[in-house]
Amino acid sequence: MKLHLRPCTITDLEVLVNLGRRTFIEAFEKDNKPEDFKIYLDSAFGEETLRKELQDINSVYYFIYLDSSLVGYIKLNENEAQSDIKDINSIELERIYVLAEFQGRGIGEWILQQVISIAKVKNRSYVWLGVWEHNPKAIKFYQRLGFYKFGSHPYFIGSDEQTDWLMRLDI
Predict the structure, then answer these.
(1) What residues are labeled active site?
(2) 75 lies in a domain?
(3) Residue 131 domain flag
(4) Residue 71 in contact with residue 64, Cβ under 8 Å?
(5) What is the rounded CA–CA span in Å between residue 125 and residue 169?
(6) Is 90 exceeded by the pLDDT of residue 52?
(7) pTM, to two decimals
(8) Closest by alpha carbon to 67, among 95, 102, 97?
(9) Which positions carry the signal peptide feature in this UniProt record (predicted)?
(10) In this structure, what are the phi and psi dihedrals at residue 93, rounded to the nearest 5 degrees?
(11) Helix (H) and strand (E) counts in the chain
(12) Which domain holds residue 81?
């Protein structure tokens, strides 16, 4: 099993839209109201939104490959692109998604090791992320890898206000 990252470019837009929508649906559709979920999905994973994000110098999307199979993606934010903290000493892991059929193979842990390596190369002191308070599997995963809760913030799926825990890993 050989895993590797590849930075996304604007030429990857269509694949990113489809992968983003698919993984978000797999992860959260069952837990949200259909009308709110559709509004969020169309906004957050629309071509125009993702095109802007791909062109932002402070955001980077990476595809994750297992051998030659695309299995997931991540989005890292720095500086003003960070959703909350905007600390020049940190990197936000805004999105980390692995297709359902590839989960449970250690890919998520490998991805986080890569994110930590990227943060170290950039001389950042911590990585942080937001995770839905009703996602105990993800929270436990992050805690096992050394992340700890340091706050929370509202997160909207359509008009439904939810709460994300803010978690960080000091490097």
Answers:
(1) 142
(2) yes
(3) no
(4) yes
(5) 9
(6) yes
(7) 0.95
(8) 102
(9) none
(10) -95, 90
(11) 5, 7
(12) 3-125
